[in-house]
Amino acid sequence: MITISLCMIVKNEEEVLADCLSSVQDIVDEMIIVDTGSTDQTKEIAHSFSAKVLDFEWVQHFAKARNFAFSHAAKEYILWLDADDVLLEEDRQKLLQLKKTLDPSVDAVSMFYHVGFDEDGQVNFKYRRNRLVKRSLNFQWYGAVHEFLQVYGNILPADIAVTHQKRKKTTVGEPGRNLRIYEDMLAKGEDMTPRDLFYFANELRDNGQHVRAIRFYHEFLNTKQCWIEDEIRTCQYLADCYYAVGFEEAALSSLLRSFLYDQPRPEFCCRIGDHLKIQNKHQAAIFWYEQALKAPENETAFTLTQYKTWYPHLQLCYCYYQLGDLGQAKTHHLASSAHYPTHPSVLYNEKIFAEQT
């Protein structure tokens, strides 16, 4: 059986930390909790779980804090989590089993990250992250903001999910912190990696600076040194920015550009369908919504499940109804209702069809 060090960085996480640590306390063999300046009960909560609590002076750099935490691990493997992450019972049992059976030749284990949920609590946004890594290989974190763990070797994709529970928190982080870090880097003339350019553009977009975001998204793509998933997401975010400033044709071009990087993803097919539907080009929109339903599953990609389930069916119902094909409209209504019976648009359609019978 392998041994595991849990390594975390925290600040003012008293509302969620106990849930996180409770979910793994009987799985990990030690807890390394690095505090970057809490003023609440975070450290006391960590101590109550017999964690090794270390202080780290915040230097505007997340990777340095995470590497500091990793440097104090003593077990064979390191598991990293954020304070608002938990393992649900099914995934706890899977991780316990993995701990008993993991082949020591495995250098890292990737797990699903469940980050989005519908009103019924069903996962609608997930992707993979390397969560469990061999300590002896000294894997390092990189990036001042939106840091990433550079991993290589024999990587095992496990059917285990870490669940993000940010919705449980009533307090929020320091507003604008990430954007200020990037603006400070820019003002000092520090080199930005392609990843920095991508996340800087994201921060600008999130703060309503759409024109500047467009500039840095293009700089990011022009480096041609990008992870394919970030390239594809950039096409989506560029479209958002172009729509926000009224450049609809540029937005559509950005959506289509995503096809240069991989086979069409369901969310892009749906957004192209949306673009055409708004223009009352219902037959053309139908083509794209149907492509979303036909798209193959891709476990390694960022997955937004609604774009392959209820959403395209909902839009197909509308388009066929507008074209006068009530049979097809009803078929797609029933399909959307099977996936999401409580959605307001689905309930509205249910009323419309009920009135026709």
UniProtKB/TrEMBL annotation:
<protein>
    <submittedName>
        <fullName>SPBc2 prophage-derived glycosyltransferase SunS</fullName>
        <ecNumber>2.4.1.-</ecNumber>
    </submittedName>
</protein>
<dbReference type="InterPro" id="IPR019734">
    <property type="entry name" value="TPR_rpt"/>
</dbReference>
<dbReference type="GO" id="GO:0016757">
    <property type="term" value="F:glycosyltransferase activity"/>
</dbReference>
<dbReference type="InterPro" id="IPR011990">
    <property type="entry name" value="TPR-like_helical_dom_sf"/>
</dbReference>
<dbReference type="Pfam" id="PF00535">
    <property type="entry name" value="Glycos_transf_2"/>
</dbReference>
<keyword id="KW-0808">Transferase</keyword>
<keyword id="KW-0328">Glycosyltransferase</keyword>
<dbReference type="InterPro" id="IPR001173">
    <property type="entry name" value="Glyco_trans_2-like"/>
</dbReference>
<feature type="domain" description="Glycosyltransferase 2-like">
    <location>
        <begin position="5"/>
        <end position="135"/>
    </location>
</feature>
<dbReference type="InterPro" id="IPR029044">
    <property type="entry name" value="Nucleotide-diphossugar_trans"/>
</dbReference>
